[in-house]
Design a protein that fits this description.
Phage portal protein; alpha+beta; 14 strands; 18% strand; flat; four-stranded mixed sheet
Length: 373
Amino acid sequence: MNDIEIFNLNNYVLPEISPQFGKKWTLNGEQNSFFKYIKERFNGSPTNAGIIKAYSKYIYGNGLADLKGNNIHKFISKQDVKLICESYKMYGQFTLQVIWSQGSKLLKQEPQPIQFKYMNTAKIGLSLNTIGEVDGYFYSYDWENTSKYKPKFYPKFDGIYKDNPIEVITFSRTSDEDYFANPDYLSGLQWAHIEEEMSNSAINHILNGFSAGKIINCRGGVPPTEELREEYKNKILKKLTGSSNNNKVIVSFSNGMDSGTDIEVKNIEVGQLDAQLDYFSLEAQKKLFAAHEVVSPILFGDRSGNGLGSGSNSDEMQQALKILYRQSINPMREDILDSLQILFKYTDIPNTELVFDDFEELKVSKNNDIENA
């Protein structure tokens, strides 16, 4: 008889998407886990990351400007605007610190906002009043370790100075969620996770010598106790696979026909693995393009020739770019600009007319449209 060690297969669990209400703060999932999940899918999926980065660049264009000529960058830096664009696309919201001047009673100067600084929205928790409205924010560097990184409270910015030099405000995309807006590509997150696991699988496949796993059969007899079997198994795994063991390994003990210890190692092969990897890789890309409402993949760095504007016709490319701006970029810009316009009303240049400056080639395209109209 054989004594066989069984290994467990991975079990995917969709993260909970709901506010977690606490005594002091409300988080986006347990310990802000949903924000963390979103960022992990950005870090692990090349397609998802590429699309988000491209969208952010399209939104930002040549930068934030004021049509009335005010120096807006004394209030908000170009780097902070870029981070706002990326945060808005990645999380569906962005967070800013509002830094106030102290004013002067002697000079009869009231405190005013003098700077807007980007704040990582994934590290923000909400403070709710007795009727469930947001009245402030908590910031922690790591919500999984609040004993070390104690959350700090900031009042919510509403234009009224509260004797606190720093206030915080979060702006979200249009959403029916009460407290945390989900990203607009929510349905694609699982496919980003699949693409991430595909790359992990490819790395493991290479490290495992292009084998899906191994069976180690020890035919020198079955150890008499469970403790000894576990000890022998660990020694064998350490000897044969090293300390960073990512292999899928089954270890079995059996009574061999001959005396002495005989260890037999067999590879576990998976049929058509390459075809499976190709299928899921292509499917993940297609689903992510769909979730992000990508009109033409080539506008986001895909050169496979799929979709509108595959590169064979410059007119198609121009048409795809116009659809992209009309359908996605301009509505995102409008949300961000409306939010920033609210903040600038409380500064010493309240009458700004904020816009995102377009790329030069897009300006040329728009001018040609006007001339041909």
